[in-house]
Design goal:
The chain has 307 residues and is α/β, with parallel strands linked by helices. The protein contains 10 helices and 14 strands. The protein has one domain: Aldolase class I (TIM Barrel), CATH 3.20.20.70. The longest helix is centred in the C-terminal third of the chain and has 15 residues.
Length: 307
């Protein structure tokens, strides 16, 4: 086990819709304030998407990003990890704009294409506040989240030009091979930071066996690397705890899971951060500070971002 673990809080995301939880942060101020509370609870990193303040629909609006991340930076020193996944259906160009504009220390980098399916949520949710919600979920039955080798090469170029470290989102084992290939071709440099994303319909399911397999496979293809784990749904805390036990970092937050415990909705990202921080401490692992995280991941520092 590690002496310190990086806790990332994924604040709002682009998966859950406003009707699913009244606690989902929507406006830039809500997103920023939730991130700051997560920092106070022990998160070193916040993962940021933005939404239309009026409807809650995921969008890629530079002004909304700027409002959220500058507020976070003004109140605390946590690492801001900006999405390059965006919202479902956005073009690669749209997804890269926040990275090129703000030059963050860290940003998500999706490591391959995947059937990113949310349509099955319509089995649970029948009534929606906004018209876009049901349409957004339904369209994913015939949706591929595209991350081709050509687009990943372009993403790598933009990340390199802006000094932004990629956080490789790996939804299935083949994406580990994609990362290894990009290292071999010189598009990206080691050491790499991988986030194993488990539980999305279309990707690998969350289980102890699958996590051990992913880590072992990455060791064989890549060698030394830093990794984190995030889990969509109710397996979030059990699998994140396993990550702690095998030397990994963890991501929690309302982007991935709306609940704190069985039948108990999380009222904030900070509640989930506090829970995983407590579990880590019980195992003898301290939550990393933002500056610890910068050292562990080899980040360029707050002074070199453009926000």
């Amino acid at each position: 086990m590690k002496e310190k673990t990086i806790i990332t809080a994924a604040i709002s995301g682009s998966i859950h819709t406003p009707s699913m939880s009244k606690y989902l942060p929507i406006t830039p101020q809500e997103i920023a304030d939730d991130a700051i509370q997560a920092w106070e609870a022990g998160a070193a990193v916040c993962h940021i998407h933005v939404r239309n303040p009026e409807t809650g629909q995921p969008i890629s609006d530079i002004n909304l990003f700027k409002e959220a991340i500058t507020r976070i930076k003004s109140k605390c020193n946590m690492v801001v990890c900006i999405t390059s996944g965006g919202g479902l259906g956005m073009t690669a160009e749209q997804r890269l704009i926040p990275v090129a504009t703000f030059k963050p220390e860290l940003a998500s980098f999706n490591a391959g294409s995947v059937n990113f399916a949310l349509f099955h949520a319509l089995d649970r949710y029948k009534e929606f506040t906004y018209d876009w919600e049901s349409k957004y979920l339904a369209m994913t039955e015939d949706f591929i989240f595209p991350n081709t080798f050509k687009s990943m090469k372009e993403f790598a170029r933009i990340f390199n030009e802006n000094g932004t470290k990629p956080e490789f989102e790996v939804y299935d084992s083949g994406m580990i091979n994609n990362v290894a290939f990009m290292i071999e071709r010189g598009y990206i440099k080691k050491p790499v930071y991988i986030q194993f994303v488990m539980g999305v319909l279309g990707g690998i399911t969350p289980s102890s066996e699958n996590l051990l397999f992913l880590v072992d496979y990455a060791k064989k293809l890549i060698g030394d690397f830093e990794f984190s784990v995030c889990v969509a749904g109710r397996a979030q805390f059990p699998i994140c705890t396993q990550s702690l036990l095998i030397g990994g970092n963890v991501r929690v937050g309302l982007e991935d899971n709306l609940y704190l415990d069985k039948g108990v909705m999380a009222k904030s990202n900070a509640e989930q951060v506090a829970k995983i921080a407590r579990i880590a401490k019980e195992l003898g692992i301290d939550p990393a500070t933002p500056d610890d995280a910068r050292k562990i991941l080899g980040l360029k520092g707050m002074g070199k971002v453009s926000f």
